Amino acid sequence: MPVSRRGVVKGGAAGAMSIALAGSLDTIFQTAAVAEAGEAYGYGPLVADPKGVLDLPKGFSYKALSAEGDVISGAVKVPGKHDGTATFAGSKRDTVRLVRNHEQTASGVKPVADARLVYDPAAFGGTTTLELDGAAKLLKQEISLAGTATNCAGGRTPWGTWLTCEETEGFSGQTKSHGWVFEVDPTGRKTKPVPITGMGRFAHEAVAIDPHTLEAYLTEDASGPFGLFYRFRPRAHRGQYHAYLEGGRLEAMYCPGLPDLSLAQEPGKTFRVQWKAVPDPAAASTSIRKQFEDGQVTRSQKLEGAWWGHGKAYFVASYSSKEDGAAADHAGQVWKYDPRKQTIELELVFKPGGRFDGPDNITVSPYGGGVILAEDGDGEQYLVGTTSEGEPFAFARNAFNDSELTGVTFSPDGRTLYANRQSPGVTFAITGPWHRFRD
């Protein structure tokens, strides 16, 4: 019997998540069975929020801050569609900065900023930088990049900046080309609205960076045909602001015998990787994914989150559907790329019909050896955690609506978990007895 998202069947195998997993101990997201009424792992059952906003385990609380439409100063307001986020050290001791994406394209609350921070005046995307004290009190916020479009996810660089990614190839009314990656300095001093053209023009999702080689691994969420997994090999050999503006080589992944990632259904399966040079990274006349014939590259529907850890690049495919033209069905995959072995390995497969689906943004938890995952699936939306042994648990639930949760990230000291509800946009600062973790 399939497991409903809104009412998990009681008891036994019927209550188990329909998930297969690899046995690797360094897996980024491991899974196992889960009970209906309050998980036996993690922090215990969720407690209904009397305000109907965010359900959390007992002892945990949240602050809602920097909501869509809040006045920053004068006519400047907080944009909406809060998405990918990263944290950085603040300007003073015990303060923290958040750089947050806004996945708006050509509508919504328009970011208003100094002209030196605006790329395309017709676009409504961008980033906001927040500074908070140790109690998660908002000290100040400002638009830190404007005039970009559909800023979805991105990645934190080893040198302490944020790469914000445009998940678009253009829109009606644009004054400049779109589909780029931009770098944002959390201090605001060095940000330039200049696209990193070497990283290609496509519907970007996330970036994971090897801190030793500075090679960046990028995901693409696109269709007709499906998107690709990329490697950017920079000319720069030192990690520093704007290092990637020096250019480099963009390549697309090809796994012989695996034209579509959805065909892999057995966790632990490994495939050899070859990298194919992208003929025209700027996609001046043809989208990058269309510059390759089928059989020359490996494609995937709905490539999303990416994360670097354990010396490997992990990346996520949220789902795959044969009805959409994919080779096989699944409700989520997690892959890892080993640059030393030049292989990818399937770490996890979500089978359709489980309680959780649509894995998207992920962050590593400093507690218990697992991760916190932001769901972008059907119906109810959760933050899902895992133990070091792979047992999953619901850590939070969007009790307000069915909008996805995004931008999950811990503060540098690990005391606060930040996450966003995308629509209407708001950022949550979640605190509580983290050390109460049941592994």
UniProtKB/TrEMBL annotation:
PROSITE patterns: TAT (PS51318). SUPFAM superfamilies: Calcium-dependent phosphotriesterase. InterPro entries: PhoX, TAT_signal. Coiled coil: none annotated. This is PhoX family protein. The lineage of its organism: Bacteria, Bacillati, Actinomycetota, Actinomycetes, Streptosporangiales.
